[in-house]
Q: What sequence folds into this?
């Protein structure tokens, strides 16, 4: 499992506890989420992550300005090592690697975030409905969720992408299909635990419609876990997209980090030792994934104080005495 | 017992879903796959094979239900059609020849990662705030952020091309004849190191963190305080009391992780040209060898389901509360 | 009857001026504030108070079981003359369970769900007395016998026993090494009333047989009358009154003690009205205990013999 899955495992590990739920929300009718954003900014890990993401977003937006022209144009330069002219060198096709990396961020980040949002939206819908409507609907939706969780991701992705027409739309579609289940499971268990709280019972008794209760009472209390799910799915989206493209199942005409790596492999950059052709794109994916993971851990720490690094005494030394 | 039956039922449903998916996909696919495949095989397809392909793709105008039943029937007889790219070898034969390598790579990597990762996690939780707890997780998570195949490429470059310590591709040296001799096994092992280590390095962070977090929650349980009050030795508490309980969620995750590792193994095989089903899958995709693609998908899915079922059995053994119900 | 001993029997437990703080990220809470009491050999000491008054913290402090962020910030704990707060981790480990043991509130949570009862009892013997597993299991069977549980239950897992049985197992574990002091932290709160009585009877029996001292913590004062020799009432980390059990019930001097007693009205006698302390009444700046009659101390102003006026908010 890479960190595309690491945060999923953290989520999964937490949700595998029989009665424990990952984050502890402030219960209460439409509880003021005690400045989740503010406490996040104070958390060092989350702050570092946010900074890194901001940098990449900036690069993505400014790519046409910083590296004008079409980066995928084949030139006669051939593969050249990094130099002052080409900071990251050139590919065997003579393309500037730095430009490719910058332009690549646009597609990769876009697909990543779209997949993240779409998959999380589905996960929220499925998870909340399952938790709230209960019984038969819950059983049915849980079955679907678990089946999707069980089927191995990459082979499923490959087979779906192989049968559908190549293109960014297909990539987004298949990633969303394979990516929503993890979040749905976690959100369902969180929603179930909130549902048992008194203020929900009060809302039902006073006649609020179920739909309203789901989205106005329960959902706001799940802010932190929704955030974790969203970030985790984005990580998944970026990583899995790169994987698909590397296998040649994406749209090779689009410039993205994954296709950069695909071409690097196909053009023999690897075997020939032209390491600069594949290092930057992979590193970019890693940094973005890592940054998102950092934010995730920040959110987790903010909502679950037990995970914060405690000034912790070695096990078994007894209570500290400070007279 | 009920638990077992319920899980079994669930896996059967999942298998049914994947078979049905396999059945439906070619039928909803736009365009004409047959002519594409015929041009790929350069006209070497016999009329019988074409008929068979048509049946496979549902283009022979039989009622759909009959096709569906026929599909299940052929599955049970192990008939998955003929591979286009390895014409005329049947799909089942192609898969059977390569799946062993994937199993070898996957299980080796998974076992190493699980053992090391969980041990590190236990140790990190034991000494919270210590070096292991504060330094290692961020590093491992960072490494785990890299895409599998990228790390594989890096490892290939550094250890294979530059340093020349390990072979660059394949499962064993060209020209070597497979046997159980020590030399051959050693050769296989050498070829296994880089691909397996790539998977281990990427995944170990996830295991460590999951175990660490589970342990932290477990050690705040009352029975741990009671164990301390009893004056038990620290490592007995850690392992017999805390870890033993913390491994239960870990076992659950193990089942899930099998699916992830399969994905990672596939990508790694591609980078190292390791002759497993992952590598095969890619060449099948490139060659538009739909029967082979579908066959591999089903085989992998089936294997993952079986593995998960085995893990469930292990879980039942470990958790007395489930056993009793 | 006093024998011709040259020394006064030493107190089993002497807690003097104990203070425990919880040091959080932003603020510090003092959970136990300069608390002092002693427990003699064979004596049962009851500690009563409402939830959150600090009684559990004080009890856990005796065995130094409190975890981060709790810190013992003052006072001393002497067990048979030994300074508990100065013990090294190894000394602490051998001290625990041998000299002092504890019965926690919820037996279900105190028992390891994936180990059999037998193994968990055997643990005690293999660790402290170096017995083999087999020998330890024999001793375990004896222990279960002591609390009238069938030895066949050794192979059972905690979730397979009833609540009352689990609590008896935990009590049996507590007396395994014949400690001098048993700390019982609300041992019956999680049980229904009938089982409660059985457990209290069991504890009384064991005490008669083995002669240990008890520190009994509860919020239900009526439960303690039968068992305790002396009692103390705790509020917001401080003791507000301490006396012989009978004396405390007969003549409660501190208003809080009275309110607490009245919260559990007797089954017989006239039916009075439950008045409690009054709306929003709290006690702050609780003064030190002063003797109001022999052996009876209360946190009252030494001059006026009332709780400090203006000390109520």
A:
């Amino acid at each position: 499992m890479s960190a595309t899955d690491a945060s999923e495992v953290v989520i999964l590990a937490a949700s595998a506890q029989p009665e424990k739920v990952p984050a502890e929300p402030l219960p209460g009718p439409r509880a003021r989420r005690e400045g989740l954003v503010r406490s996040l900014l104070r958390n060092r890990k989350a702050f570092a992550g946010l900074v890194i993401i901001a940098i990449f977003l900036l690069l993505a937006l400014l790519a046409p300005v910083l590296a004008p022209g079409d980066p995928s144009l084949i030139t006669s330069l051939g593969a050249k090592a990094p130099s002052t002219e080409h900071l990251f060198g050139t590919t065997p096709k003579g393309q500037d690697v730095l430009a490719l990396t910058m332009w690549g961020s646009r597609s990769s980040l876009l697909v990543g975030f779209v997949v993240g949002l779409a998959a999380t939206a589905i996960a929220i819908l499925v998870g909340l409905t399952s938790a709230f409507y209960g019984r038969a609907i819950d059983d049915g939706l849980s079955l679907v969720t678990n089946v999707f969780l069980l089927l191995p991701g990459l082979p499923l992705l490959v087979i779906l992408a192989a049968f559908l027409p190549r293109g960014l739309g297909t990539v987004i579609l298949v990633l969303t299909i394979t990516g929503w289940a993890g979040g749905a499971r976690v959100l369902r268990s969180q929603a179930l635990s909130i549902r048992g709280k008194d203020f929900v019972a009060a809302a039902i008794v006073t006649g609020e419609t179920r739909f309203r209760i789901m989205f106005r009472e329960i959902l706001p209390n799940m802010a932190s876990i929704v955030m974790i799910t969203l970030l985790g799915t984005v990580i998944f989206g970026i990583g899995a997209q790169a994987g698909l493209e590397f296998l040649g199942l994406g749209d090779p005409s689009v410039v993205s980090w994954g296709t950069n790596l695909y071409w690097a492999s196909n053009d023999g950059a690897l075997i020939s030792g032209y390491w600069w052709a594949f290092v930057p794109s992979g590193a970019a994916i890693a940094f973005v994934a890592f940054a998102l993971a950092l934010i995730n851990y920040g959110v987790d720490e903010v909502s679950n104080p037990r995970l914060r690094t405690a000034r912790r005494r070695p096990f078994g030394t007894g209570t500290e005495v400070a007279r | 017992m009920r638990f077992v039956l319920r899980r079994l039922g669930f896996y059967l449903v999942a298998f049914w879903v994947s078979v049905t998916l396999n059945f439906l996909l070619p039928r909803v696919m736009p365009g004409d796959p047959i002519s594409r495949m015929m041009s790929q095989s350069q006209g070497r397809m016999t009329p019988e094979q074409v008929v068979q392909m048509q049946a496979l793709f549902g283009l022979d105008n039989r009622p759909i239900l009959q096709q569906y039943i026929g599909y299940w029937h052929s599955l049970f007889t192990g008939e998955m059609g003929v591979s286009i790219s390895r014409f005329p070898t049947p799909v089942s034969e192609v898969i059977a020849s390569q799946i062993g390598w994937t199993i070898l790579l996957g299980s080796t990597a998974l076992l190493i990662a699980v053992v090391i990762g969980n041990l590190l996690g236990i140790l990190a939780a034991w000494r919270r705030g210590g070096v292991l707890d504060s330094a290692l997780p961020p590093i491992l998570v960072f490494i785990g952020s890299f895409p599998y195949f990228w790390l594989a490429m890096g490892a290939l470059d550094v250890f294979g091309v530059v340093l020349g310590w390990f072979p660059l591709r394949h499962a064993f040296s060209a020209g070597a004849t497979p046997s159980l001799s020590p030399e051959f096994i050693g050769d296989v092992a050498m070829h296994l190191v880089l691909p397996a280590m790539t998977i281990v390095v990427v995944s170990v962070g996830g295991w460590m963190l999951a175990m660490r977090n589970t342990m932290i929650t477990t050690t705040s349980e009352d029975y741990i305080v009671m164990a301390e009050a009893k004056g038990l030795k620290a490592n007995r508490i850690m392992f017999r009391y805390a870890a033993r309980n913390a491994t239960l969620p870990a076992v659950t995750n193990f089942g899930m992780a099998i699916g992830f590792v399969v994905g990672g193994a596939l990508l790694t095989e591609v980078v190292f040209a390791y002759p497993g089903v992952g590598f095969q899958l890619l060449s099948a995709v490139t060659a538009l060898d739909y029967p082979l693609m579908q066959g591999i998908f089903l085989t992998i899915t089936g294997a993952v389901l079986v593995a998960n079922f085995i893990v469930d059995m292990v879980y039942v053994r470990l958790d007395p509360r489930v056993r009793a119900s | 009857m006093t024998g011709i001993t040259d020394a006064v029997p030493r107190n089993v437990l002497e807690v003097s001026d104990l203070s425990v703080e919880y040091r959080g990220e932003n603020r510090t809470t003092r959970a136990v504030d300069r608390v002092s009491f002693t427990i003699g050999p064979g004596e049962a000491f009851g500690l009563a108070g409402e939830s959150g008054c600090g009684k559990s913290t004080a009890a856990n402090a005796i065995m130094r079981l409190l975890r981060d962020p709790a810190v013992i910030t003052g006072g001393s704990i002497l067990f048979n003359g030994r300074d508990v707060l100065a013990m090294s981790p190894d000394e602490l480990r051998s001290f625990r369970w041998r000299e002092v043991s504890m019965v926690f509130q919820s037996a279900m949570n105190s028992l390891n769900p994936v180990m059999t009862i037998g193994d968990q009892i055997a643990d005690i013997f293999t660790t402290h007395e170096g017995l083999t597993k087999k020998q330890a299991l024999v001793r375990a069977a004896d222990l279960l016998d002591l609390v009238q549980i069938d030895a066949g239950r050794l192979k059972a897992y905690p979730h397979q026993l009833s609540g009352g049985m689990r609590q008896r197992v935990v009590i049996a574990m507590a007396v395994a090494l014949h400690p001098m002091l048993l700390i019982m932290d609300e041992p019956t709160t999680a049980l229904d009333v009938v089982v409660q009585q059985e457990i209290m009877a069991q504890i009384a029996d064991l005490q008669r047989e083995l002669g240990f001292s008890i520190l009994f913590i509860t919020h239900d004062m009526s439960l303690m009358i039968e068992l305790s020799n002396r009692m103390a009432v705790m509020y917001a980390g401080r003791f507000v009154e301490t006396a012989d059990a009978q004396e405390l019930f007969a003549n409660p001097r501190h208003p809080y003690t009275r309110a607490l007693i009245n919260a559990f009205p007797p089954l017989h006698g006239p039916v009075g009205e439950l008045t409690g302390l009054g709306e929003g009444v709290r006690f702050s700046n609780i003064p030190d205990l002063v003797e109001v009659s022999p052996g009876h101390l209360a946190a009252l102003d030494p001059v006026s013999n009332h709780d400090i006026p203006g000390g109520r908010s």
In short: Chain B touches chain A through 87 residues (CB under 8 Å).
